[in-house]
Amino acid sequence: MIGIDVGGANLKIVDESGVHIHYCPLWKESPLAEIIAEYKEAGADNAAVVMSGELADGFFDKNEGIAFIVDAVKKSFPNAIFYGMDGKFHTEACRELAAANWLASVAYLKQQYPNGMMLDIGSTTADIVPFADFEKLIGMTDTLRLQAGYLVYTGMLRTPVATLASEAVIDGKVTPFSTEYFACSGDANYVLGYIGDEEYSAATPDGKEVSREACLRRLARTVCADLEEIGEEGALAIAKAFCSAQQKLVCDAVAKAKAASNADTILVGGIGSPTFAPLVGGIDLTAATGIHADALPAYAVLQLAKEQE
User: Fold this and answer.
1) pTM to 2 decimals?
2) In the chain, what is the straight-line distance between the N-terminal and C-terminal CA atoms, in Å?
3) Ordered structural domains, the chain, with CATH
4) Which of 42, 90, 100, 295 could pair with 12 as two cysteines, CB 3.0-4.6 Å apart?
5) What is d(CA 119, CA 105) in angstroms, rounded to the nearest whole number?
């Protein structure tokens, strides 16, 4: 059996050989079914699945997205099981499957850390969830999580730079940012060393390559400049302004949730775990336990499925 997490931008699969992350944007003509079929051909006999990709704006609504994802999986694994917001597994498309990936992670981790909490920060979002009142989490939609502070919509790759920072000091002058989608969090985190080539798996804002110079050029455009106009120092100032704002936003949300829940342990997963674990005083799940932190929901749903066999 394999574990599958179908996000809007990335498809994450955990099998016996480890973690496999495929860039698979569901708002485009994405080969979701074809990628999953490769694992069937490689010998997998079934799949345990979670999703959040039903929210992609290529779908009319969540129901259409859920049906699309379930159909894509069942083409290869007709007996696949899907974890829902009710904390149960299902075999057919239903509303409960919407955005249940984080709940699977919590359901698994709370077994070992009953008074802990989770920060799972990936390409697009940060899930910040205390474990103590698990029953209160059942059925909690993403809208309710936004309201509770359990979902912070920023991630290591896909957040537009101008959404969190509005200016940087360049050549001694406060320089406002344009609000065009010129650069993203992936560019800022890449040039500051928080992620590398392997982690930068999303499409870039201009569709060009991932390299230090390309990222710096995209960042420079945030202030309507070529890189040659503001230099590397100016582009790095933009990156630092963004990352400082992003880190403060996430760390403040973690501190608020921890204080409210009296959590004794913060477990950090996602591609942002090496950056954020020390910032929040947490445990990097991959480094500390060997759990596949960069694909935590896929790993968690696989373990939950094995427990009920």
Assistant:
1) 0.93
2) 11
3) 2-99 (3.30.420.40), 113-293 (3.30.420.190)
4) 295
5) 10
